[in-house]
Write a structure and sequence with these properties.
This protein is an alpha/beta fold. Among the domains are: about 5-60 and about 65-115 and about 250-315, no CATH class; about 385-445 and about 455-590, no CATH class. The chain has 22 helices and 10 strands. The chain has helices spanning about 5-10, 75-80, 105-110, 130-140, 145-155, 180-190, 210-225, 235-240, 260-270, 280-290, 295-315, 330-345, 350-370, 380-405, 410-420, 425-455, 465-490, 495-510, 520-525, 530-545, 555, 565-590, and strands at about 25-35, 45-55, 60-65, 90-100, 100-105, 115, 195-200, 225-230, 245-250, 255-260. The strands form 2 sheets. The chain has a 6-stranded mixed β-sheet with strand order 6-7-8-3-9-10, with helices on both faces. The longest helix is centred in the C-terminal third of the chain and has 31 residues, at about 425-455. It starts with a helix and ends with a helix.
């Protein structure tokens, strides 16, 4: 069933709509292809992660999914959240997963449910109030007053009032506590009041009291009629006492499902007595590590599974309500751009780093090259001018390139979280980012050019300075597009820095500075046409030496024969090409499961 057909079924049916949603899954098998480490037989082998599991999670109940590490609990949770897509080659998925008796996909899931990942992925220079307000603005179809009321209510309900206007914090900035970060992440998923909430290890990294407060909060949400499902490894007895339903999984199969405390009687009936004064959770986890679990699987299949399957069959396919409307692309892009500007200004490193690089480059150039000789009899002056142009060209290129290539890997986790939650489209994010990147790519080189051009004594005839700035801006724009393209595929800033440095070497080799353009080997000459440095050096050289006073025209000596206009058009073309390519790279990245 397609998404449109599914939405029509859910929304256009004449049946009674419901906001309470039962999640059910029946005979779910999931396997992946892994490399065969045995060295014999096929190169790849099939690893079965889930082996025909069935279950039901009801509204109004707090459902805990427990099991040993590697038992399959996170995989099952991610399947329910549509965060795993089986391609039939590297992975395989069979079985039925339904919401209120209806199949659903990732887009539909995001409209009636929320998903909280184990890691708190937030911007460190945002406050909880700003983060929740941003989510409310893009996910709620309500007036500004209604959105503000919702945000204030969430801050109060999640005990975030005292930290509401404090930076979230992170690597570069001290901020709110771990418990407050977790509650902020949870509030983001509850902005649009979903009927279902899935959480992966929500107590991870929290102390026992903070973890209890969080699970008690989830308990209260379940009492309001929501379907709450979360994975947890080994809870304290206080936390365990809050559970309504327990799903206990081991090695991809259920060994218990039902009332959390009823499991004690079930396991006692098959020879696993409950130790006096023990924590039931510890007892259950200990059981899952039993070497021979065949009797547990058999007992579950015979004693518990038939009733579960019958209950799944009894779930009538009932339409449920979710809002089909979406925010406009430009409206969303404007808010993404506004957030990006605020975060850039606040970041203790990014803004200062750009300004510092401009200052350092200007100081070095003026110290090294001022004043440049323009004596037509001084042939050595050409080498100084060429060196100054290349130094400026390369510095300007790297400032813009690194500015985008290193920042997106940092933003990538937030982008993926918001993308997978369908907060905005890739197009809106791309436009919002361009609205910030492009002005920076214009202002930074224009500022640097304004500082160094006249003190160094570059050619000031006619409109040479205006063309110098234009070339600088176009090169910066093309470098920024290339940086975003490369950064889109990298997850670590350190890796990005290394990769970008390696990728820019060919661009520099064919720039015409290290080797005469006509002497570039044929097998490398094609690199000229995709090198922003090559086009920029051509444009800078023509702008500086056209109508040269020197005896030998440097542009002829170095075989720069494209001309100024052709070089400018080349930079425009690369700017468009790299930014279009970066858009499609972001679309590819958006398909990544977070």
């Amino acid at each position: 069933m397609t998404e449109n057909n599914l939405q029509d079924t859910l929304l256009n049916s004449g049946d009674q709509l419901t906001d309470s949603i039962t999640l059910s899954f029946k005979d779910v098998h999931y396997s992946v292809q892994v490399k065969n480490q045995q060295g014999t037989g096929d190169k790849f082998m099939t690893k079965n992660i889930l082996k025909g599991v069935s279950g039901i999670c009801r509204p109004g109940e707090l459902t805990a999914l427990m099991g040993p590490s590697g038992g399959g609990k996170t995989t099952l949770l991610n399947l329910l959240a549509c965060r795993i897509v089986a391609d039939g080659k590297k992975s395989s998925l069979t079985g039925d997963i339904h919401a209120q008796g209806n199949p659903y996909d990732a887009d539909t899931f995001s409209k009636f449910a929320g998903y909280l990942m184990q890691d708190d992925i937030l911007y460190e220079t945002q406050t909880p109030r700003e983060a929740i307000t941003f989510a409310a603005t893009l996910r709620m179809h309500a007036t500004a007053a209604e959105r503000k009321k919702r945000v204030d209510q969430l801050l109060e309900d999640f005990q975030l009032n005292r930290a509401a206007d404090t930076y979230i914090g992170g690597v570069f900035l001290k901020g709110i506590s771990g418990g407050e970060r977790k509650r902020t992440s949870l509030a983001l998923e509850l902005v649009n009041n979903p009927s279902v909430l899935l959480l992966d290890e929500p107590t991870s990294g929290l102390d026992s009291f903070t973890a209890f407060v969080l699970i008690n909060l989830l308990k209260n949400l379940a009492r309001d009629g929501k379907t709450i499902i979360f994975t947890i490894h080994q809870p304290s007895s206080d936390i365990f006492s809050l559970f309504d339903q327990l799903l206990l999984i081991s090695d991809g199969k259920f060994i218990f499902q039902g009332d959390a405390f009823e499991g004690i009687k079930h396991f006692e009936s098959i020879g696993y007595p409950f130790p006096e004064y023990a924590n039931p959770a510890d007892h259950y986890i200990h059981i899952t590590h039993t070497h021979d679990r065949s009797n547990m699987y058999n007992a579950f299949d015979k004693q518990l599974l038939p009733a579960i399957e019958q209950e799944i069959e009894n779930v009538k396919a009932t339409p449920f309500h979710f809002d089909k409307r979406s925010k406009g692309t430009f409206y969303t892009a404007a808010h993404i751009a506004s957030r990006a500007i605020t975060l850039f200004i606040r970041h203790p490193v990014l803004l200062k780093a750009r300004l510092l690089m401009v200052a350092v480059i200007a100081f070095l150039m003026i110290s090294l090259y001022r004043p440049l000789s323009r004596n037509p009899l001084d042939e050595e002056a050409v080498f100084d001018i060429n060196g100054a142009l290349y130094f400026y060209c390369l510095s300007n290129f790297l400032v813009s390139l690194m500015g985008t290539a290193l920042t997106f890997p940092v933003e990538r986790p937030v982008f993926l979280r918001e993308q997978n939650s369908k907060v905005y489209s890739v197009r809106a994010y791309f436009l919002g980012r361009q609205a910030v990147d492009i002005p920076l790519s214009v202002l930074t080189p224009a500022l640097l050019a304004g500082i160094i051009y006249h003190p160094l004594g570059f050619n000031d005839d006619n409109n040479r300075f205006a063309y110098f700035v234009l070339i600088s801006v176009l090169m910066s724009l093309s470098a920024g597009g290339f940086g975003l393209l490369v950064g889109s595929f990298l997850t670590n800033p350190i890796t990005a820095a290394t990769s970008v440095s390696a990728l820019t070497v060919p661009f520099n080799i064919v720039s015409g500075y290290y080797i005469n353009v006509k002497d570039i080997p044929i097998f490398l000459s094609w690199l000229q046409y995709i090198s922003p440095v090559r086009y920029s050096m051509e444009a800078f050289m023509w702008n500086e030496y056209d109508g040269s006073v020197f005896t030998k025209a440097p542009v002829e000596v170095l075989s720069y024969n494209w001309g100024l206009n052709t070089a400018l058009l080349g930079l425009v073309g690369l700017t468009i090409l790299f930014r279009i390519a970066s858009f499609f790279a972001l679309k590819a990245v958006a398909k990544t499961v977070q």
